[in-house]
Amino acid sequence: MGGRSLVARILYTLLFTLLLPVFVARLWWRGRKNPGYRRRIGERFGRLPHAPRPNGLWVHAVSVGETLAAAPFVKAFQQQYPDVSVIMTTTTPTGSEQVRRLFGNSVFHMYMPYDLPLFLNRFLRTLKPGLLVVMETELWPNLLAACQARHIPVVLANARMSEKSARGYEKFSALTRPMLQRLAMVAVQNPVDGERFVQLGLPADRMEVTGSVKYDVTVPAGIHDKGRALRAEWGGQRTVLALASGHGGEDELLLDLYPRLQEAVPDLLLLLIPRHPERFEAVTNAVRSRGLRVQRRSSGSASEQTQVYVADTMGEMLQLLAAADLVLVGGSLIAHGGHNPIEPAALGKATLIGPHHMNFAVIVDNLQNAGALALVSDQADELLEQLQNYLSDADLRSRMGAAGQAAVDANRGAVKRLTELCSAHLKL
Fold first, then answer.
1. 3-class secondary structure, 248
2. Angle 280-289/250-264 helices, nearest 10 degrees?
3. Segment 261-303, tens digit of pLDDT
4. Domains of the chain (ranges plus CATH)?
5. Whole-model pTM?
6. Catalytic residue among 66, 136, 250, 343
């Protein structure tokens, strides 16, 4: 693909090789809080624990969010093509846990190898996939080159490209352009993001607008009954504010606001759902340091005297959100980019999100325009006033929840379109 791009990839590979000891040391360091980072390290060097049948579907989902986004697609594909092997790779232990929880032994799971030819070649020689589907925007130069050399088509699914990300990719056009030209198809969430991919070098005929697979979220039967059962533990008539997928700084902000929120809503229960399990202990300690009565989910039932409930378990997000009256989406009160607001909307919950939601900008706009979601400030005084307004107005929350369910239902269909696209590349 040109001498300049080849030189760029060689230099990238040399730099990656030099930094490899740092990456491994970082795994070991992160393993202090999450031992999963220290396990199965051989997989990151291309040593596979499984040998699935050739020509299977390989789905790469970096962590929890991408795994949850991939779930409706993978389940639909398995139902339609039960005889095709499905391989799922992740990068993080929390993503790995989600794969196991969602799919059990119905998929072959392993960690994605480091992006170096030696490890990728070893990996692909054993795996022999028929198609790689990469969720969202996880592009690696050597991975795409290795797949092209073996004639393995690569589809970038549920793809998004913010203006900020596009500027970043443009700075490394010698790597970005050949990567995009090696893709068989990019299934984008919306036309605006699709045009950004084309401007960066993707051939226009390899871009298809499929919408977001996250709208195809499945609301399990009985989930609202489970939510009501949780509420019964806390006192069935209490008002529950949930922070979903909270990050450092966000939990603490709400804890600082809690006494003033409780003045307006005396029965308020604050439900904290940290994004990462490494923070469970820190969040619990933050509650105790403020003199508030706390209950961790793993330690038994709460009571009407509980002020803060810390959800320190994995895989129960929908059940927890089903127990809430108002949901504030985390990762949006700090400069992180926000998390998925579709799940609370699909459950019929009034949903709020902070100003830092660039990762879900189009979805936020859609839900906001539908009256299903509202923006809040990351400044304490403004946020306090906004939360007080929503917590005190049950009718407003009810209208937002109904609008959310309608908006999610109206945008479903991306999974079907993606399944059709992938089956065509697999020649099924």
1. coil
2. 40
3. 999 999 999 999 999 888 999 999 999 999 999 999 999 888 8
4. 3-211+413-425 (3.40.50.11720), 223-410 (3.40.50.2000)
5. 0.83
6. 66
